[in-house]
Design goal:
Elements: H1 14-70, E1 86-87, H2 93-96, E2 104-114, E3 132-146, E4 149-156, E5 159-163
Antiparallel strand pairs: 1-2, 2-3, 3-4, 3-5
């Protein structure tokens, strides 16, 4: 006669099922971790491109501010007819063709002229000193190209120059 065994006491093969289940679970977790690390790498690369474009634009903006401080473009009254300002064309060579290591386009705009003297600058009894303020807006657009696309950043600054 055959000896009958109940299902609850027969545990042959249970270890195999547990091992296969555990390997499947670990495989799913491993695939998920690989995808997450790839996503993190892409996000980091995009942030690096964006920061690089910002740094290029900021470098161009600093060149524009230097130009306004050291060699301001001449502004005639006829050049200020536009409401949006006038793009200055009489600028130094380093503004027209930026250095090769700087991946930025540069422009300098004259946006306003205030003919009243700055506060506290009145030199005579009539409070007229011949000083006036010219407001320039240097603009710079930095780019950082890669296989995944080009990141662009555009920066503006408003600079007032008191002159005579």
């Amino acid at each position: 006669m055959l000896k009958s065994e109940s299902v609850s006491t027969n545990q042959k093969g249970l270890a195999m099922i547990l091992v296969v289940s555990l390997i499947g679970l670990l495989s799913v977790i491993g695939v998920w971790l690989i995808q997450e690390s790839g996503l993190s790498h892409r996000m980091t690369s995009a942030m690096v491109r964006s920061q690089s474009a910002f740094n290029q634009a900021e470098g161009g903006l600093q060149l524009g501010i230097r130009c306004v401080k050291k060699e301001p473009p001449y502004v005639g009254i006829n050049e200020l007819r536009s409401d949006n300002g006038t793009k200055m064309t009489d600028v130094p060579d380093y503004i027209q063709t930026p250095p090769t290591h700087l991946h930025a386009s540069l422009e300098i705009w004259c946006v306003d002229v205030d003919t009243s003297p700055p506060p506290g600058w009145g030199m005579n009894k009539q409070a007229y000193s011949g000083y006036y303020t010219v407001y320039y807006r240097p603009e710079s657009e930095g780019t950082a190209a890669s296989r995944k696309g080009t990141a662009r950043t555009r920066l503006y600054s408003l600079t007032g120059l008191v002159t005579r």
